[in-house]
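Sample intake — PsiF repeat-containing protein
Collected from: Bradyrhizobium shewense
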Amino acid sequence: MKLPSATVAASLVCLIVAPVFAQTPPAASPAAPTSTVPVPATKRVTCLATTASLKGQDKRDQLQLCMAQARLDCLKQAIDQKVVGEARKSFIKTCVGGDAPEPQ
């Protein structure tokens, strides 16, 4: 079976481009406080994705449980990193997933 040339070309492009995206970001400077920078905000998105197949009250319940677990995980992370006061509140908000209100 012959592969179309477009498929071969696309495969080659993927092989060339993939290592570029796989490179690790440069290390942060020692002066930058990396201990208070949260992981990118994906917990809310993860919760929304995991409850997408549900409907009605089941969806609301599972989303509420997932978000509560996400907040707890972020709180544990903030405590481990010794983030306190307003910085902790901001850290948790950013860690969980931003400013969007939680769906009811």
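Post-analysis note: The chain has a mean pLDDT of 73.
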